[in-house]
Design brief:
47% helix; 79 residues; 0% strand; 4 helices
Amino acid sequence: MRFSEAMREVMRLTKTTQAGLAEADGVRCSAVQRMCSRMGNPSVRVLSRRLARMGYRVALVPEGAALPEACMVIDPAEE
């Protein structure tokens, strides 16, 4: 899954709009739009903050380890 696809999926699951996330994060809607597009490349800090606003978090899991239920994996090969 691409990063932008994962962000859109989290927003869908949490019924969060780009405008709503932008308002909650105190940024312009265009900043969230960029993050949700294939061109988006947010810092880990920005990503963590925005995901936290939707009840999600970033986790680092060793390769081959069991993944938590309902997690999303970002595959760099797909980027």
